[in-house]
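Rather than argue in generalities, we have chosen a single entry, letters for residues, whole numbers for local backbone shapes, without further comment.
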Amino acid sequence: MPKILIDPESTSLDHRYAIVKTKRTDRARYPEGCVTVVDDEATALSGAHAERGLHPALVYGPSSSSEGQRLYYLVRWLA
């Protein structure tokens, strides 16, 4: 996984629990449209469904990419 630069003064970037819809779990970042932010780790874990491509994760973001997309960086998979 890439090293994530964390901006301690940011008011929009933060660590968040999420459910990521993807078939590929080897990526370091995911577009905002693939990420559903949830309230806590338990909610992320309960929303997981690997057969449907739904994976619980801890992510950091959203961050703007050079292509104009909003991205979340994978911190770690929860399961």
User: Anything to note?
Assistant: The two ends are 16 Å apart (CA to CA).
